[in-house]
């Protein structure tokens, strides 16, 4: 929407832009916290509610199913009502979803809460992306995206850390979820502050044309190149591996490796913590050197042996890991090394993969390209927790039978090898005649 007389208005000041980034990112902090708040209560849900691993997998998939449905119309809602209102509305849905989950007394109600969360959380991510594009286009857009993602990951890490700083809440599975409702309510507060900031900016600053949101145009399916589809395929298998692994990780560290809940939470948090720092750095590095498809292939190669390493390598000596102001825990050296390596991959691949799409797809279809990629991501991510949950149940995984977790780890490994295959195909395509410059474009080059 263009603003009348916009030409006469100044662009927003840098301080105003960065304040917008802070509030939009705090809403994302709440969003990622609520999603990950379920992970540390998996063992309690099994003990206190008698849920099977298959049901835990279904809770995860309920989120993705809702996200899949709502992403089809989310772009329309954002275009129709504006990102400003959409952010507040979707953040409010997340608060409601968190409260429904915390108050649930049965599996269907908890599943309904996670379904509702998918309806709010994924379009909230899309709306925040649209807001950042609007305020930062032609300015520090990549850096703003990087910082936004880092603050979001801090939300994920904080949910893991709640096993330490909110340890007394973990006598039952509901209190940690009430805490997550409070955190998301604060996120809604941040969304409202963002709403006020943008309203105040109207008539004072020129914000440019509203950016293309991630609106899905299914006709575009036929128009993308092979390189785009290799990236989408990598995105699907990469996130279908990492996110479900995270969903089960705290419980897995407790049951299969005998860690205390606090230590398991600290260990699991190292994945997003590594990403908080490393994602923007990898982004800056790749902008300088190019070689994007090669980096995606390297990331996929590093990931390949990690799930088998946690399953079959000896644990090694215990090491004390301390997170200042949060807590500390003793974790086996092998697990620590694997999670740090996985954290590196979790930083490298997203830092390279999402921006790479912008080099491959025409500007006018970028919104559609991202929407389609997110949609495909949800499809894979729906299926994998169901499979892993079923495998854990089928092979009677538990503290008395840690080997029962091995089939799930083999499944992650199979997905990782597919990821490596797609990354390799992308690398070959990009080195050939039809390459889009993923290997060559750098900040110094003229494209
Ligand atoms: C940038 C990317 N985000 C996504 O993949 C989202 N569609 C889903 C995030 C859900 C986190 N609870 C990422 O986080 O790497």
From TrEMBL:
The chain crosses the membrane at residues 15-35, 56-78, 84-103, 115-136, 177-197, 228-245, 265-286, 293-313, 333-357, 369-389, 409-427. Residues 20-431 form the Major facilitator superfamily (MFS) profile domain. One of its GO terms (molecular function) is transmembrane transporter activity. It catalyses: L-arginyl-glycine(out) = L-arginyl-glycine(in); L-arginyl-L-alpha-amino acid(out) = L-arginyl-L-alpha-amino acid(in); L-alpha-aminoacyl-L-lysine(out) = L-alpha-aminoacyl-L-lysine(in); L-aspartyl-L-lysine(out) = L-aspartyl-L-lysine(in). It is found in: Lysosome membrane. GO terms for cellular component: lysosomal membrane. It is a multi-pass membrane protein. Coiled coil: none annotated. Keywords: Lysosome, Membrane, Transmembrane, Transmembrane helix, Transport. PANTHER family: MAJOR FACILITATOR SUPERFAMILY DOMAIN-CONTAINING PROTEIN 1. Lysosomal dipeptide uniporter that selectively exports lysine, arginine or histidine-containing dipeptides with a net positive charge from the lysosome lumen into the cytosol. Could play a role in a specific type of protein O-glycosylation indirectly regulating macrophages migration and tissue invasion. Also essential for liver homeostasis. Homodimer. Interacts with lysosomal protein GLMP (via lumenal domain); the interaction starts while both proteins are still in the endoplasmic reticulum and is required for stabilization of MFSD1 in lysosomes but has no direct effect on its targeting to lysosomes or transporter activity. Belongs to the major facilitator superfamily. This is Lysosomal dipeptide transporter MFSD1. It comes from Arenimonas fontis.
